[in-house]
Design a protein that fits this description.
seven-stranded mixed beta sheet, alpha+beta, 40 helices, single chain
Length: 1724
């Protein structure tokens, strides 16, 4: 998708702001601007627009206005990409593209073609190569793009593909088919023997065009048959074989056709043939003036010449297809015979006494001669139909059952002679066409293995004579072609709408397609709908609807049936009924007789059909059945052999489908599928019927292509002659716009300079194909989908991390989850994909983008793989070179060694004995090989045996297959005979039903007549009896009866008149009510129509708004997808920018490093330059010395006389010098070897240093990364610990605050309790006094009421209240003590928590110190690392400097070697001079100079030795440095390992600390919970204590009053028992006090109270009551004590207590209180 510029975006925004719309009218549409203003007051549903071309302002309906797209969308390649998808926008885009000669346009998944004829440059081979290997997204819309898409899909999925061409006649379907096949043949190529090539296809198309095409009113070269061209491809994607199947051939066109149309092209080619010999042989030199078939030669010379050229081209094409000359001759003979039969003609019925014969026998004789038979045989085959034998059943083009044969002679109308002649001509041409198809398949078939195929379906387009300007009605053949097109259109609808919606429903994908109109298949049903009782023919007129084909079959069997009865039945099923709206019915009546209108293409193409002669057409013509027999029995061997050879083959399926032969498996499979269509279910019984045969042919076509993936090509007719936008009939058949707007001239579509385009015609074709709905569904839905596993396997290359995570061939249990992860990693827009139950669905274009990304990723992976492979190969090559070098050195070494040992005797012995050993070894190998050969022979024998067995089994299986085939053939024959018998029985039954019906009608008529006659006889008898009675009786009696009779007659007349009047009155009333009801019905009907119109308008408006809403939503989604892509690009750009910045930084550092190295190299170069200058100076000195030496030599040579002694001495010195020179040479060789070894060692050291430097740098980088990660992790952990410590510190402070609050609260509570106890004691004492007074009062009352029982009960109640109060007080004291114990426990727990807190703080401080230490150590390690890196860099720099020095020294060594060589050369020259001087006299001075020279050389040699030693020491130092570096590296690694262990230990300590902190937190939570519970207990106890204190106050007050009352009555005897009981209680208390156990607090309280009782008793004792020595009480009044123990009792209850009950209750209470005190102690 090209990126739009800012100017384009601004222009589009300005366009959409101007509210541009299309105004739809009769002649097309016009561009206008919608006017919007608040001041406009228009009625509802109206808009005001301004036309752009003339500025006119119009008020139009909303339905007539459609939104317009921006000019940038005028030539879009895909109509589904339009922003606003409506009819006008689509038509405008098509018009613009058509005007620019862009004939192809994508319409979602389909291709739309506008008349591809007349543009040959678009279909050149160069254009083919442009589409080769491309994806659909990369290709411009073209017919080649469809072929490439199907071919690519076939190769990828290994699934059969089908390309279906749809459209009207003349729209270019056959031309597109030719381009498709030519592209596939050119691009795919053929394998091996060139089975299918472009030349063969051109030859085949020429053949089919000649024999299957003819001119019509709609097309000058129309195809008159349907074909399926199949190309079978092998594993490599090449064409392995091809085949063609044909059906629905208009064979009757040879003899009969519509007026103004011609026959097949081949007849005109043959008549224009320029070959005189052939014309003479075919008797075509003299042509007939008249031909009943209408076959006349062309009149214009240029047409004749063109036809002659076409005939030559046809002959060449047949030659290319392998048609032999004899086979060609057979074709010409049959065609010429047909022509001569037309010239012969036939007699009329009235002539020749009704005999049927030829009109001109001389032409018939020529035809018989050409066919190889006699005139009598030909006449008999045509006109005499008594040949009903086995031979007639071998027809390969037509069929006729026994019932048709008999009906043809007897029941039905007799065929005329002309009809018989036409039947023979059509039968001969059908046989010839079938023969040609068989010969073509013979040339295209192959036995190669084929994998899958591409099928191309080409059928005649929609036939509408009205479009061609003809006023005639369409024929039955045109109905068949239109029916086939409707079936293909329905297939397009099923694949595009129904299957997609079902798939969405199955996958639980919710998509709303409310604006899609439901499909109407009424036109198809009106033609082929079968009844449930279709297996049995019946003359009964059932209410079950049946199609036209079935009605034709039934009416053909009914005697007296006509076309009117046929139309009557058809309209009763499918015609417009009462109450139907216009356009709802697929059928409409025509004003002409025998005519009807049928709405094809969803009611947009209404065709008027003429049914005249259809019933006779459906009946089989016996002459047509005799045509195959005539050809097979021909006396010309070339004819009979050709047709007899085909008679036994299954080349034609029941005379319907030709070309079922084929050698490949796919061709056989297709043939089997088609045969199955004709042999299963209803077809097995009805296959003999010509009408049903048409349906079965189309069924076979649809079933064949349904099994493959379909690609649709819609061919539209841009212009048609005679097309006026609407048919000539009712308004309901309009196919143009629904708008009635009629603009004046000049307001039509602005066609400009574009090619002419018929917009109403194009609009009708667009609506009929339902492409708009298909494109809407394509845009709104998810057209691309893949199974989860397939999608994951295909696109997991885009998510390498998932592949690395699971492995390359990982098995996923949950495919859905894996696909979701993959989609998340792909970062797709959410609206662009949807997950189903088993598939993943994508919006249009999403999968293409993923494929493009996959291709890019795959290319990158392949590039990396190629680089790795090339690197590996280069390394292997280098290794091989090294091995070769080593081998060469080894060979050289062995040669040297061989030279040393070749004269050694032992070596000679070894070389002599070695071959003998090898001979022994070779013998053993030969024996092993013989054994292996024997084993292989045994295996071969075994395999041969198995092969023979398999061959025998295969032979047996083949024989079995042949037997089964013969049995199958027998069964088929049996089935055919059974079907024939069934048909005969059906015909007999039909005749019987007809006779029975006639007899029934006759019976009913006779019965009615008999009843009438019986009534007449009865009346006559009555009258006769009356007359007889009147004659017998006397006159008076007769007169009386006559009067009665007359009176009765008058009464009957009166009654009749009265009933007649009543009936007339009622009838008038009913008629009035009927008229009223009719008026009401009319009003309701008008209201209903109005509401229906309103509903339709609202529905259209809703659909329009929904479509616009969907377009806007899709546009928004597209913008969101673009924004998402831009965000992805922005993120990628940011990452690349950051990478670029990083790379720039690295480059900067590298540049600085290189600059430093450059400076160092410049310095080294300067030093080397200085050294070179010094060397130059040395060389100059040497040259000067050489010059001086040469001068000395010249001086020496000039001397003539020398001393012999000096000569001997010089010779001796010379020998010494030679010896020294040899020694020096040996030393120099040794030094050279040492230098070479040092160089090798230096190279190894350099390589080792480089490798170690790289590894060290990598390790340092990894260590740096690890240290950085460890530092970051430690920092994170430290931060986390600090946060945790802060939280713990805050928790600790909180706990301490809560602890202090609890302590303060407990202190206040304890103070309050102590204060309350002291005050209560004082208050109790005061109350005791008052109680005593009250007891005195009570005593007085007792004296007065001592005999009353109620006073005793009150006393008992007071005792009980006292005891209960005491018990409650004791329980409160116990609870207080338990609470104090729990508070102490809480204090202990808080202390433990504080200790744990301090321990944690200490541990935290310790960890903090350890953290600081680790950080310090890390910093120190970092510093050490930096120092080490500096040292490493310095060492590397030093090593590089040392390497440079070593290179310099090596250069110096090389120079020294060169100087040595020069010196050696000079030495040799000196030796030669010395030899010369030996012969002459030598001067001593010269010898001394030579010795000095030798000494100088020795010193130089010594200097070189020192240099070598220095280099060796330098190398040793480098080695030591490297060892030190490795040791430091190992130490660093060890230190890092220790640091890692330390970090792990710290992490473990952190985890332990966290666990301890968690435990403490839990303990604190538990303590807080217990504290809360204790607080609640304290509150409850405080409340109970307050209530008890209030009760005690009241009790003490009353006890004080009782005490005061008792003091006055101490002497009373009645209180003696009470006092005794109190004394017993005090005694028991004393005993209990002596025990060591018990509750001290309770005892002290009881002691205080007992002391109070004692004091009270001592004060109030009488003469007989005193205290004993042991402290026991003898007598007292204990009423106050009981009062104190029962504070809760009421006054009435105190009155009911008596003394005895008090004493008993007090004793029991004391014992119970002791037990409870012990239990309280135990619980505490």
């Amino acid at each position: 998708m090209r990126v739009k510029t800012e100017e384009q975006i601004a222009a589009e925004e300005a366009w959409y702001e101007t509210e541009k719309v299309w105004l739809v009218h009769k002649d097309g549409f016009s561009l206008a601007t919608q006017l919007k203003s608040k001041e406009l007051s228009l009625p509802e549903g109206k808009l005001r627009v301004k036309l752009d071309h003339d500025g006119a302002v119009l008020d139009v309906d909303e339905d007539d206005v459609e939104k317009a797209n921006a000019p940038s969308c005028d030539r879009l390649e895909d109509l589904a990409s339009l922003v606003y998808l409506n009819e006008s926008s689509v038509l405008h885009t098509l018009r613009q593209r058509y005007g620019a000669s862009l004939l192809h346009t994508y319409a979602g998944p389909s291709l739309l073609v506008l008349s591809p004829r007349g543009a040959p440059a678009v279909y050149s081979e160069k254009v083919m190569q442009m589409f080769k290997g491309c994806r659909r997204e990369d290709m411009a819309p073209h017919i080649y793009a469809v072929a490439q898409t199907a071919y690519r899909a076939m190769l990828m999925s290994r699934q059969d593909q089908s390309i279906i061409l749809l459209g009207s006649s003349g729209s270019g379907k056959t031309t597109s088919c030719q381009h498709l096949v030519q592209y596939l043949a050119t691009i795919a190529g053929t394998s091996g023997n060139k089975v299918f090539s472009v030349d063969k296809w051109q030859a085949l198309s020429t053949l089919l065009e000649a024999f299957g095409n003819s001119p019509t009113v709609m097309n000058g070269n129309a195809t008159r048959f349907s074909q399926i061209l199949s190309l079978d491809f092998d594993q490599a994607g090449q064409v392995a074989s091809a085949s063609i199947q044909t059906m629905l051939l208009e064979k009757l066109r040879v003899a009969r056709r519509p007026a103004g149309e011609a026959t097949f092209n081949v007849f005109y080619y043959l008549l224009a043939c320029g070959d005189g010999t052939l014309r003479t042989e075919l008797h075509l030199n003299h042509l007939a003036e008249n031909n009943v078939f209408g076959i006349v030669p062309l009149a214009k010379p240029e047409e004749k010449q063109k036809a002659a050229q076409q005939f030559s081209k046809l002959q060449m094409a047949m030659k290319v297809l392998g048609v032999s000359p004899d086979e060609q001759k057979v074709c010409w003979l049959i065609l010429a015979a047909i022509y001569h039969l037309g010239a012969a003609g036939a007699t009329k019925e009235a002539a020749e006494a009704g005999r049927r014969q030829f009109a001109r026998h001389e032409w018939a004789q020529k035809a018989a001669y050409l066919l190889g038979c006699s005139l009598e045989e030909l006449s008999s085959a045509i006109f005499k139909h008594h040949h009903q034998g086995g031979t007639l059943q071998r027809s390969t083009s037509f069929r006729q059952g026994p019932e048709e044969s008999s009906l043809g002679e007897g029941t039905g109308p007799k065929l005329s002679a002309l009809e018989c002649l036409e039947g023979m001509a059509s039968g001969l041409y059908s046989e010839l066409f079938t023969l040609l198809i068989s010969l073509a398949n013979r040339a295209l078939k192959s036995s190669q293995h084929s994998l899958c195929s591409v099928m191309i379906v080409d059928t005649p387009g929609f036939q509408n004579p009205e479009q061609g300007g003809s006023a005639r009605g369409a024929s039955f053949e045109e109905l068949c072609h239109n029916y086939a097109q409707d079936r293909l259109q329905r297939l397009f609808h099923e694949r595009t709408f129904v299957q997609e919606l079902e798939r969405y429903k199955e996958e639980n994908i919710e998509l709303a397609f409310d604006d899609l109109e439901p499909a109407t298949d009424d036109s198809v049903a009106a033609v082929d709908q079968a009844s449930h009782q279709s297996l049995v023919r019946s003359l009964a007129r059932t209410d079950e609807a049946r199609g036209l084909l079935w009605l034709l079959e039934e009416e053909a069997l009914v005697p007296g049936a006509t076309e009117d009865t046929l139309l009557q039945r058809l309209f009763s099923y499918y015609g417009p009924q009462e109450g139907d709206k216009k356009g709802q019915s697929p059928l409409l009546r025509s004003s002409k007789s025998h005519h009807f209108l049928l709405g094809h293409s969803h009611g947009t193409n209404w065709v008027e059909y003429n049914t005249a002669g259809w019933l006779s057409y459906t009946k089989q013509n016996p002459a047509a059945q005799n045509a195959p027999r005539l050809l097979q029995d021909s006396q010309k061997k070339i004819i009979s052999n050709l047709f007899l050879g085909r008679a036994g083959g299954a080349t034609v399926l029941s005379g319907s489908i030709a070309g079922l032969e084929g050698g490949s498996q796919l061709a056989l499979r297709r043939a089997t599928s088609m045969r199955k269509t004709f042999t299963t279910g209803m077809a097995a019984v009805k296959k003999k019927s010509l009408c049903i045969q048409i349906k079965l042919q189309v069924d076979a076509l649809i079933d064949t292509v349904k099994k493959s993936k379909l690609h649709f090509v819609h061919c539209f007719l841009p212009v048609a002659e005679g097309w006026a936008g609407e048919p000539r009939s009712a308004a309901s058949r309009r196919v143009s716009s629904s708008s009635e707007l009629d603009l004046p001239p000049g307001e039509h579509c602005e066609a400009g300079g574009l090619l002419p385009l018929d917009v109403p015609l194009l609009r009708a074709q667009l609506r009929g194909s339902r492409l708009l709905d298909a494109m809407r569904m394509y845009r709104q839905g998810y057209p691309d989908h893949m199974v989860f596993s397939e999608f994951r396997r295909r696109f997991d290359v885009l998510a390498p991390h998932l592949t690395k995570k699971h492995g390359r061939n990982y098995i996923v249990v949950d495919e859905r989850r894996a696909v979701e992860e993959l989609l998340e990693s792909l970062d797709l827009e959410k609206s662009s994909c949807c997950m189903g139950l088993s598939r993943v669905f994508f919006r249009a274009g999403t999968l293409a983008r993923l494929e493009e990304q996959r291709d890019e990723q795959t290319s990158r992976n392949l590039t990396l793989f190629q680089a790795a492979c090339r690197g590996y190969l280069a390394r292997q090559h280098f290794k091989k070179k090294k091995i070769q070098d080593l081998a060469i050195r080894c060979v050289q070494k062995n040669i040297k060694k061989n030279k040393g040992v070749k004269d050694w005797p032992w070596w000679k012995l070894f070389t002599t004995v070695r071959p003998l050993i090898e001979v022994q070894l070779s013998e053993e190998q030969i024996r092993n090989k013989d054994e292996e050969i024997q084993q292989l022979k045994s295996k071969l024998e075994k395999v041969e045996k198995e092969r023979n067995e398999l061959r025998l089994s295969s032979d047996r299986l083949e024989t079995r297959i042949s037997e089964l085939t013969s049995e199958l053939t027998d069964e088929r024959n049996t089935g055919e005979s059974a079907s024939q018998l069934l048909d005969a029985e059906t015909a007999e039954r039909l005749r019987a039903e007809k006779e029975m019906k006639e007899l029934q009608t006759q019976y009913d008529a006779l019965k009615k007549k008999m009843e009438v006659m019986e009534m007449e006889v009865m009346e006559a008898r009555l009258i006769r009896a009356a007359e007889i009675n009147g004659e017998v009786a006397d006159g008076d009696t007769g007169g009386e009866w006559r009067l009665k009779y007359e009176r009765a007659v008058r009464e009957v007349d009166f009654t009749k008149k009265r009933l007649q009047q009543e009936f007339e009155d009622k009838l008038e009333v009913e008629q009035q009510s009927k008229r009223q009801l009719e008026r009401r019905l009319g009003d309701l009907q008008a209201d209903s129509d109005e509401s229906q119109r309103t509903l339709q308008q609202l529905k259209k408006k809703c659909q329009r708004l929904t479509a616009e809403l969907q377009d806007t939503r899709l546009h928004l989604e597209g913008q969101q997808v673009r924004n998402h892509e831009l965000e992805k690009k922005q993120r990628r750009f940011d990452s690349e920018l950051s990478q670029a910045h990083e790379e720039a930084q690295r480059e900067k550092l590298q540049r600085e490093k290189l600059q430093r190295e450059k400076d160092m190299l410049l310095a080294e170069a300067f030093s080397l330059k200085q050294q070179m200058e010094e060397k130059d100076m040395d060389i100059a000195g040497f040259t000067q010395k050489v010059v001086s030496l040469e001068a000395e030599l010249q001086d020496i040579s000039s001397q003539e006389s020398k001393d012999e002694a000096s000569l001997a001495k010089v010779k001796k010195q010379l020998r010494d010098l030679e010896a020294k020179v040899k020694d020096q040479e040996e030393e120099l060789d040794e030094q050279a070897g040492t230098i070479q070894m040092l160089e090798q060692a230096k190279l190894r050291l350099e390589m080792e240093m480089e490798r170690m430097r790289q590894t060290h740098s990598k390790e340092m980088e990894s260590r740096d990364e690890e240290v950085e990660e460890a530092r970051q992790s430690c920092q994170k952990k430290l931060k986390q610990m600090e946060v945790q410590l802060e939280e713990e510190y805050e928790d600790k402070q909180k706990v301490l605050r809560e602890k202090r609050e609890l302590e303060s609260k407990l202190a206040t509570l304890s103070d309050q309790v102590n204060q309350r106890d002291f005050e209560s004691e004082k208050r109790l004492r005061k109350d005791l006094k008052r109680t005593k007074a009250l007891l005195a009062d009570a005593q007085i009352m007792l004296d007065h009421l001592k005999n009353n029982a109620p006073s005793k009960r009150e006393i008992a109640q007071l005792k009980n209240q006292l005891e209960e109060s005491e018990f409650t007080c004791a329980a409160a004291v116990k609870a207080r003590k338990a609470m104090e114990v729990e508070i102490e426990d809480l204090h202990l727990q808080i202390d433990d928590i504080a200790k744990a807190k301090t321990a944690l703080e200490e541990q935290l401080s310790r960890l903090q110190r350890e953290k600081n230490e680790i950080q310090n150590r890390l910093e120190e390690d970092q510093e050490d690392m930096n120092e080490l890196m500096k040292k490493h860099k310095a060492a590397v720099a030093q090593a590089s400097r040392d390497l440079a020095q070593m290179n310099d020294l090596q250069a110096q060594l090389e120079e020294a070697n060169k100087e040595k060589q020069e010196l050696q050369e000079k030495l040799q020259a000196l030796q030669s001079q010395m030899e010369f001087l030996e012969q002459s006299m030598v001067d001593k001075s010269l010898v001394s100079r030579q010795e000095a020279k030798i000494r100088e050389l020795e010193t130089r040699l010594e200097f070189e030795r020192t240099q070598v030693k220095r280099l060796e020491s330098l190398a040793s130092r480098l080695k030591e440095n490297m060892e030190k570096l490795t040791e430091e590296r190992d130490q660093r690694v060890a230190a890092e390992n220790r640091e890692k262990e330390q970090n792990k230990r710290l992490q473990r300590q952190l985890r332990d600390t966290k666990e301890e902190m968690g435990e403490l937190a839990r303990k604190e939570a538990e303590a807080s919970r217990k504290k809360h519970e204790l607080e609640m207990d304290l509150e409850s106890l405080e409340a109970a204590n307050q209530s008890l204190q209030a009760d005690l106050k009241l009790a003490f007050k009353r006890i004080g009053d009782l005490q005061a009352a008792i003091e006055d009555e101490m002497e009373s005897d009645e209180n003696e028992d009470l006092i005794n009981s109190l004394q017993d209680m005090v005694t028991k208390y004393q005993k209990r006090k002596n025990k060591p156990e018990g509750d001290s607090d309770v005892d002290s309280e009881l002691e205080d109270r007992v002391d109070g009782v004692k004091s009270w008793l001592s004060k109030n004792k009488g003469p007989s009551k005193a205290a004993s020595d042991d402290g026991s009480l003898k007598s007292s009044s204990p009423t106050s004590y009981w009062k104190s123990l029962a504070p809760d009792r009421s006054d009435d209850e105190h009155d009911l207590l008596d003394g005895t009950s008090r004493a008993r209750y007090s004793h029991n209470y004391l014992s119970d209180s002791d037990t409870e005190a012990k239990q309280t102690e135990t619980n505490a």
